[in-house]
Amino acid sequence: MLVHPQFDPVAISLGPLSVHWYGLMYLLAFGLFMLLGRLHARRRPELGWTPVQIDDLLLYGVLGVVIGGRLGEVLFFEPAYYFAHPLEIPAIWKGGMSFHGGFLGVLAAMWLYGRRHGKGFWQVTDFIAPLVPTGLAAGRIGNFINGELWGRPASTDLPWAMVFPWVDELPRHPSQLYQAAGEGLLLFIVLWWFSASPRPLRAVSGAFLLGYGLLRFGAEFFRTPDPGIFGTLTLGLSTAQWLCVPMMVVGVWLLAVSRTRA
């Protein structure tokens, strides 16, 4: 049985300036997006993406992730708390970013980018889909360092069961690391392979939605559920699992439509 290392959430302190690990994970995510975006454009030149366009795309994506992710956390998971403490809504350095909110924010940002730069919405989302999972992995590692979003109680026989001392003395699943491996590394490998060859429009986007939805849905069985707008558990499912259901449905629909239109 392991014990969480209880990292200092501040990675670097320079006088009054503090750099948090959570912020560094976001910088890592954005850096990987730029690097992988260039590699993806180079291996698929027929898609017509330039380094300058990828940099602009990142700027739109950053705004979508930060604004959407924070608003998603406020509205989907902890509305009562943040409405009672509105001054804490901008405090993203303390953690608390919803994937589903960030996802909606990125969709809005990609639609706006496409309109302003003459690219179709599905062209944009198909291009960015394989670039996203590594950023998700970085975010989950940030959650682990922060000691937040811990897992459900686990069997004491589980070799990697972990105690989070500020919660209780129970061994728990390190669900942040499960999600980093599943929604991050595994999903990246699948999408990077899937997008290496020409695919019908919408297919890569559909694969991302279906893959993320399935992996997050499964990971929630090991993670302590957030209360959320649907309650802690409604019909045995967490709020995050309910939010994954439409993602999976739309993912299947996009794959079917892409196959039919191709």
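The record above closes out task 2.4. Task 2.5 opens with a second protein, given below.
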Amino acid sequence: MILTEAHEALRTVIRNVPADGWDLPTPCAEWNVTQVLQHAAGDQIGYAAFITGGPMPEENPFAPSGKLADAPEEVAERAMKASADAWATVSPDAQEVPVPVPPNTMTYTLGIGACALDAAVHAWDIAKATGQPSPLTPAMARELLSIAEQHIEPLRTYGVYAAVLDRAEGDDDVAVLLRYLGRDPHWTA
């Protein structure tokens, strides 16, 4: 399942951030690694809250403070567990699942895919910032691109995603996904 893969990518990347890596710059130009983690965790909690009616993130995911109350691994695990548990309550046949992104309802397949896309792309952001290998596989990237193409465009107007970057000769599936999300696959600090 795509959400499980995306969560494992985020989990692995978080686990491998070096102790001095939490303040490093990321492809998300205004945020460091800690802030991207806060954003990713907040988004996962947001999906869970919309599905279950439970609490929203304590901090605005779009204005992360850069200060964690708990260890990074705990922050990530708590958020991913809330998200996975919430999605486990939704029927795969559901046509209108409440989600925290416009239009605020999606089919199960699109909604869980959007949630996975969020976790996976932020796993890539953190990996890239901390010198880790990309956690995105070609198969995962192909599946996530299909999801992204169905829901990203309206979010660009809110500044959630940057403009699409032109494809380059030699782009693989991962690079195509990243460029669609407005990220340079060859980003460096």
